[in-house]
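Repro case for the chain-ordering regression, as requested:
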Amino acid sequence: MIVDTLRAWRIEWLGNVRGDVLAGIVVALALIPEAVAFSIIAGVDPKVGLYASFSIAVIIAFTGGRPGMISAATGAMALLMVDLVKDHGLEYLFATTILTGLIQIAAGLLGLGRVMRFVSNSVMTGFVNALAILIFLAQMPELLKVNWITYPMVAAGLAVIYLLPRFTTAVPSPLVSIVILTVVTVAFGLDVRTVSDMGELPSSLPVFLLPDIPVNLDTLLIILPYAMPLAIVGLLESLLTASIIDDFTDTSSDKNRESTGQGIANVATGFLGGMAGCAMIGQSVINVKSGGRGRLSTLVAGGFLLVLVVGLGDAVGRVPMPALVAVMIMVSIGTFSWVSLRNLQTHPRTSSVVMLATVAVVVATHNLAIGVLAGVLLSGIFFAWKIGQIFGVASTMSDDGRRRTYLVTGQVFYASAEQFIDAFDFREALDTVVIDVSRAHFWDISAVSALDKVILKFRRDATDVEVIGMNEASSTIVDKLAMHDKVESYDLAPGH
Amino acid sequence: MKILACIDSSRYAVSVCDHAAWAATQMSVPVELLHVLERHATDPKIAADRSGRLGVDSRGALLKELIALDEQRNRLEQQAGRHLLDEAAAEVREGGISDIKQRLVHGELVDHLPEHEVDAAVIIIGQRGESEDHAELHLGRNVERVIRASHKPVLVVAQQFRPVTRLLVAYDGGFGAEKAITFLLNEPLLTGAECHLLTVGNGSDNEQTRLAHAATRLRDAGYIVTESIRPGEPDHVIPEVVEASGVDLLVVGAYGHSRVRPLIIGSTTTTLLRTCPTSMLIIR
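-- result from build under test --
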């Protein structure tokens, strides 16, 4: 058994050294502009995002559950921090990061990864699309009310990013684009904002610090409303990215281990002066594309990022903002799920509505957590509505016209309770009514009380009621269905 | 009932087939040949695209590329696996058995055992496999795991097949050894063979009585039995005796040769597996 663990360890770390190292370097080079850009979105010094990316990547390399996945400071998380930073400052951000991590660790230990199954595909697509849109929108401050030279620079940057790979895929094109634009800016003395105008850059390795805040209930009440959505969004994006990487590598990963891993990384990051982060879809895809598969790639990405930033120091500060904008536009185009637009034509309306609603709510609130909540709610309601249609009541009259047998099939629950009641004809004057529910499934108390209502109404009209098959029907009322076999024969007779 | 024979592309496969044919003839049961297509640690290398650029729907494109490469490689492997099984079946047929099933599965051998060993009388596996073909001192990666995980007798075969006429049974009176005796009494696999019962110990009265009792039971069942007690360590003595007396098969119970708690298969059993040149039947 120890041999097995050692073997797994060896494969995860040393199974693809060259590929992992090179991919890690590519990712680091792409991470730097992103970390800076996300810091700016959050309203903090670029230093914070860069330290965060370093610490999260390095720690996740060891604690994460999905080798090959890249975690760092992200746009999804940055967007949730804007108000916190504005109203309370940096120290509260660090404290929030720590609390986010603790919540995530708890989620991992409690096995909440399973709750992900209630977040449907449409909601996740909406999440991803909304994120792409928000990242794009966040570039607006850099594109409006600026020097005209910005626009051709951004265009040139994009051109290099998209066209260079046609000639060579051995060098990261975002890096080349940034280098070219920086050189041009410096050489021609162009008047554009640079990274150093946006705040402090790291000049040394991060140090351990305790957030300078009072430790009391008030503080907790301030940071908790931020920590919760951060934790949720972080886990959502991480678990989503993990399954994408699972698909790429045809291997499975431990979602709960990933949750606790994310939590540990965030806790540590808070103490190192970084902002909360999570897994990144874009960078993970780039990692796999560049040949990265194991934990080493994540470690190299984080480590190389810090080495570069601390080592290059000033040079990073000279990078013009338009160069970063170009990279971020590429990221947003790459994150958006364009195939989902095509799918709008072919997918069921309800799924499309869920996706679009999620996007709309996120863009309106700038809060991915709320959008996901809205999406999940809608998915649930649509589902209940659809199942409520799988329901039917047929009836036969006895020869002497004094006894009617109603045969109920399908799912009776809160969404179909009303239809259930309406299916009975109370205007007939009968001696007996037989209600056969053995082929129906009652799912909740609404269903049972609907049945009670029907029985009482018949009784008031002096009609005897006989109910057959209640045991089978109500076997679905319990919260935990013992075996799936029990709930067989779903007679999908369409409702009429 | 059936004989479950684990096949791979190593040198031991022929011996496994021959042993399977022999065992199936002795016990009058069919043979099932099992070959496992193991997952590779690293997937096929796509042409690494280090441009660090995300295009439109690069996720979808990348996934398609990876799947196509996987498909290509695995198709070839599957074909090779089928071919291997066909060759193995031919070998078993030469040994006089016609009722042969071939099974090709994905994953790890140990993971498939619970399902395939259910009605197996014996599981046959080579001392080592493809990856250790050259490493004579090491046991195959799967052997120990199979013995640990399995609930049925495991026959670990050496490179050469010899019809079994002389056996050595390592008997220490313990739980495992008793199981070995029970197997010999109940199963027709080794009937008619010459059986030497060996106890490694200090020759106490207790040991002598138990040994004699076991020998009697075997004689009553029709085996030709000799018995002896030798001093020393089982790890050393048993291989010596095996070499010296030219036995065809060593039979042991999986636990009990030492005082070590049987969380691992007895360390004695492991040592014997490594050092004995003959095939070994391990009874659980």
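Ordering looks correct now. Residues 162-284 of chain B form a domain with the Rossmann fold fold (CATH 3.40.50.620).
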